[in-house]
């Protein structure tokens, strides 16, 4: 079987596939930012790429455009290695992606976001794109409807939501152990900030930098992370994401 990744195909293949019913295209928007002392900076980029790939395969008749591996991460810049686009830059990149893909005849364009900072820049530009292409379905996915699945994982593995964590906690550490164990420095796993990220704390992390909330850069507890659990997280999220997207496509 041919790859479903546009950048691994020739233009002839892409043209043929679109003519043969590949009317949906998906791309991930991740980040290159610190994920604590143990996880690589590409953690969100890798997740965006993998989830977009899973989603495209599950939907069928869908292609995957190249993942945008750098996002809006200004509040992580106090940690070495983080690269941040301005929000306006990221919005402009999304606009250019959609303009390009729309031109080739895709009818559905889905943006898969794996990093919270990217939601606002994507949200800012999508209404304009929907207005420009009224015959196309253009929307994004970012964590909609997965909270019950996260709670279930917490019950199964006896973890609080704070330990599962919103940034480099049990969930992301486990997912990275599953996908890229060679990039994970397990001996540096730490307990980070494990209290609930209230809007006030979130605001503080954005205004003063993430290190003002967690010195290690971790929100969550990585110490019980495992590859097996990582696969479990992904399996549990998969059907939720696929069903959500299918529903949006049939609206
Ligand atoms: Zn992350």
Task: Report on the architecture of this protein.
The protein has 251 residues and is α/β, with parallel strands linked by helices. It has a single domain (6-250), classed as Creatininase (Rossmann fold). Helix content is 46%, strand content 8%. Strand 1, helix 2 (43-59) and strand 2 (62-64) form a beta-alpha-beta unit. Helix 2 packs across helix 9, helix 3 runs parallel beside helix 4 and helix 7 (170-179) crosses helix 9. It starts with 10 loop residues before the first helix and ends with a helix. The model has no long low-confidence stretch (mean pLDDT 97). It binds zinc ion. Zinc ion binds next to helix 2. Zinc ion binds at residues 35, 43-44, 115, 167, 172.
Can you tag this structure with a few keywords?
251 residues; Rossmann fold; binds zinc ion
In short:
By secondary structure, this protein is an alpha/beta fold. The protein has helices spanning 11-19, 43-59, 87-103, 119-132, 147-157, 161-164, 170-179, 199-208, 227-250, and strands at residues 24-29, 62-64, 108-113, 137-141. Helix 2 crosses helix 9 (227-250), helix 3 runs parallel beside helix 4 (119-132) and helix 7 (170-179) packs across helix 9 (227-250).
The named CATH superfamily: Creatininase
What form results from the Cα inertia axes? globular
Biggest sheet strand order reads 2-1-3-4
Strand content: 5-15%
- Helical stretch tally: 9
| End-to-end separation | 30 Å
Query: CATH fold name, please?
Result: Rossmann fold
Radius of gyration: 18 Å
Q: What is the succession of H and E elements?
A: HEHEHEHEHHHHH
The structural domain count equals 1
The tally of beta strands, per DSSP, is: 4
* Mean pLDDT over all positions: 97
Q: CATH first level: which class?
A: Alpha Beta
Largest sheet: 4 strands, parallel
- Fraction of residues in H or I helices: 40-55%
Structural class: alpha/beta
């Amino acid at each position: 079987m041919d790859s479903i990744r546009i950048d691994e195909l020739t233009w002839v293949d892409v043209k043929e596939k679109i003519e043969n019913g590949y009317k949906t295209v998906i791309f991930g928007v991740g980040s290159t930012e610190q994920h604590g002392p143990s996880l690589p900076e590409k953690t969100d980029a890798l997740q965006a790429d993998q989830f977009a790939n899973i989603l495209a395969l599950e939907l069928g008749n869908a292609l995957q455009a190249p993942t945008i591996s750098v996002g809006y991460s200004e509040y992580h810049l106090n940690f070495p290695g983080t690269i941040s686009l301005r929000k306006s830059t990221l919005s402009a990149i999304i606009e250019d992606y959609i303009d390009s893909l729309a031109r080739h005849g895709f009818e559905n364009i889905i943006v898969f976001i794996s990093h919270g900072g990217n939601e606002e820049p994507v949200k800012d530009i999508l209404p304009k794109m929907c207005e420009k292409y009224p015959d196309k379905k253009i929307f994004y996915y970012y964590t909609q409807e997965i909270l019950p699945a996260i709670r279930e994982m917490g019950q199964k593995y006896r973890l609080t939501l704070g330990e599962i964590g919103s940034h480099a906690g049990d969930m992301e550490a486990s997912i990275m152990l599953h996908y890229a164990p060679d990039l994970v420095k397990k001996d540096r796993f730490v307990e980070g900030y494990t209290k609930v990220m209230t809007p006030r704390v979130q605001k503080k992390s954005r205004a003063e930098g993430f290190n003002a909330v967690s010195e290690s850069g971790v929100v969550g507890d990585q110490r019980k992370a495992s590859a097996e659990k990582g696969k479990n997280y992904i399996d549990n999220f998969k059907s939720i994401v696929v069903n959500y997207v299918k529903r949006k496509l049939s609206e």
